[in-house]
Amino acid sequence: MADASPSRHEMALLEGGEFLMGNTDSWAYPGDGEGPLRRIRLDPFWIDRSALSNAEFAAFVEETGHVTEAERFGWSFVFAGLLPDDFAPTRGVAHAPWWRQVEEADWRRPEGPQSGLDGRTDHPVLHVSWNDARAYCEWAGKRLPSEAEWEYAARGGFEGQPFPWGDELEPGGEHRMNVWQGAFPGENTCADGFYGTCPVGAYPANGYGLHNMTGNVWEWCADWYSPDFHTRDRRTNPQGPPAGTHRSTRGGSYLCHHSYCRRYRVAARNSLEPESTTGNTGFRCASDA
Predict the structure, then answer these.
(1) Are 266 and 155 in contact (CB under 8 A)?
(2) Domain total in the chain
(3) What's the Rg (C-alpha) of the chain?
(4) What local confidence, expressed as pLDDT, does residue 245 receive?
(5) Residue 95: per-residue pLDDT
């Protein structure tokens, strides 16, 4: 077990205070519960400057012997476009056929047994469930951020803007995050420089010194997911409902594209079952100040 006080290495101390959380404009998906706009107050907290990397997760596994849920299940979901052309047929997801159920896909082998982490030790760890993320946080003496903390951090000091840097997706033609470029799911021009994940420190940091708060990988949050609980929850350090079936994820991923998923925004929300694992979900840690 690591020291009970969290390491401050690569963490940022955020002062907290009040901020305007949520979104009600045309970018929002009504069923996601981004609104209403509400004034939230947070205590100060620490948060990792980037999503957890493969190298960092490997250190945890080496010390603890942790076996991820994808490893125990024997498979995980992989984006079909990352599989080689001669890959054996796999089962797809009915409403999202670009997701394939790949045997032996896990954090060490992100696209299955023929893949590995060469050249990707500084990329975000993938195929980790909420339970795996919590186990890492406990080992590190940290925790997952609440949704409110995550959104406050992602905004980087801006209020009422869709992205961590302002209101333009590509200001001055500059790519600020790793999302799908081209026609999803068949064509990715890689105009932003990447097909699949990018290093956790890629692209300029936001106003709080945090990297890739949108795009690259969805990030697990501590909260149980609800589309409407926040309308009646407290407005100081909100934590989400006391129970549920899905945990909240934030930030979007390298697969987000405006044609089907505009959730690469600071107010956007999604959710997965806590044991779910996919090739576009990771996490970053937080801790009390």
Answers:
(1) yes
(2) 1
(3) 18
(4) 97
(5) 83
Question: Which residue matches tokens 């999202």?
Answer: 96
Could you give the count of Cα atoms lying within 13 Å of 150 in the half-sphere of its Cβ? 32
Average per-residue pLDDT for the chain: 93
**pTM given for the model:** 0.95
DSSP code string of 72-119? HHTEEEEEGGGS-TTPPP-EEETTEEEEEEEET-SSSSTTSTT---TT
Q: Which domain holds residue 164?
A: 11-288
Q: Find the helix packing angle between 54-64 and 130-140, rounded to 10°.
A: 70
Could you tell me the CATH number of the domain that includes residue 276?
3.90.1580.10
> What confidence tier does 29 reach under pLDDT thresholds 50, 70, 90?
confident
**Is residue 175 situated within a structural domain?**
yes
Cα 25 to Cα 263: distance, rounded to the nearest angstrom: 13
E strand map for 142-226: 182-183, 187-188, 218-224
Residue 6 lies in a domain: no
Residue 1 lies in a domain: no
Instruction: Find the helix or strand (DSSP H, E) in which 132 lies.
Output: helix 130-140
281/232 Cα distance (integer angstroms): 29
pLDDT of residue 183: 95
Q: How confident is the model at residue 9 (pLDDT cuts 50, 70, 90)?
A: low
Q: Provide the pLDDT confidence category of residue 5 given band limits of 50, 70 and 90.
A: very low
CB proximity list for 106: less than 8 A, separation 6 or greater: 68, 70, 71, 76, 127, 277
DSSP designation for 218: E
Closest CA to 229 of 271, 189, 168, 177: 271
Establish if 278 belongs to a structural domain.
yes
